[in-house]
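Record 1 of the preview.
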Amino acid sequence: MISGAKYDVLWSPVHTDKFILWGSDITLYEVAPLKDIEKKSTCVKISPSTGATVLASQSAGGVRCVDFSWISGLADPLLALGHTNGQVSLTSLGQNTEQNDLVGKEFCK
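->
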């Protein structure tokens, strides 16, 4: 893990095996038994028998707070990012952003 920086963890409200670690970046992880994680995958060992692999990541420059929701029927989580300038934007860490018309919306203070 990264030392010297502050990171927060948000567990998925729907999937007990997924969480977001955010600080200077926002990274979506999936937890699985170590025996089920492919040998070629990079994983972070979080217990003697489980590890977490990165599913997606993006920069979090200027982000002050994060929350996320998993909308039924969509493959990827919807993130609400609160920025230091007071703006809130909606984004997704996944590749299927065309399925969600909320991605890209911005709200001013």
